Amino acid sequence: MSVPSRRSVLVGAMVAGVGVASAAPAASHEGGSRDGLESLTTLEREEPRRLTALVTKRRPIEPPRYVPPDLVTWKRTEHQVLAEVAEHLDAMFAAASRLDLRPRVISGFRSYDTQRETHRYWAARNGRAAADARSARAGHSEHQTGLAVDLDVRGRGQRCRLDPCFGATPEGRWIAANAYRYGFLQSYPKGYRGRTGYVYEPWHLRYVGPRVAGDMHRRGVVLLQDYLRQADRWEGPARPLGAPVAR
What we know:
The chain is α+β, with helices and mostly antiparallel strands and 247 residues long. It has helices at 42-46, 48-51, 83-97, 112-126, 128-134, 170-178, 193-196, 210-219, 224-231; strands spanning 71-73, 80-82, 103-107, 148-153, 184-186, 204-207.
């Protein structure tokens, strides 16, 4: 399979994005401001639409077998994520470790074929309806973008692995409260199944960059699709530049 260049954009799934300007600065790794262009991350500065691409049950990735060109392997695992995601994960995990918290990555990039087999596994185990509520169909997974990771807790057994109880662990609570500082959000939060189509998944994080994640946190916007839709109504400097309506 040919790999797209770094400048390529996922057609269809990548049409909805947010530009680099916002009235309120997002938090940096250490909680400071990110006012100027010089403080933006590489992807925030060069490919903001890629960061905020909507991938949902109704918005597939195009081309279907897209593979990100800038994947790296997460340390001491076989899991892959975008290089910028790895950098921000590392910062988040370092902050967590200073509080004796031990989150770890248990899944990152998944190809179209891997996602197809993952969905088939859950369908065979629990039935198609249940599988659709906890596993994306091939071509509809945030994991295929390289921007999403699944987490659990290192060294405390498998009790909350891929289970909602992860959200009640010390690691889960800290991540829910602080992930935005490092550019991450929960794609499938509690109480939003009717909107997302997926059960509550506190272990699943999606990277959108510190600027957008911080702005969503300040505005109290939970879902990325709502943030993009609301951005169309913002006026003046409060509106992210170039942000189209998310339909």
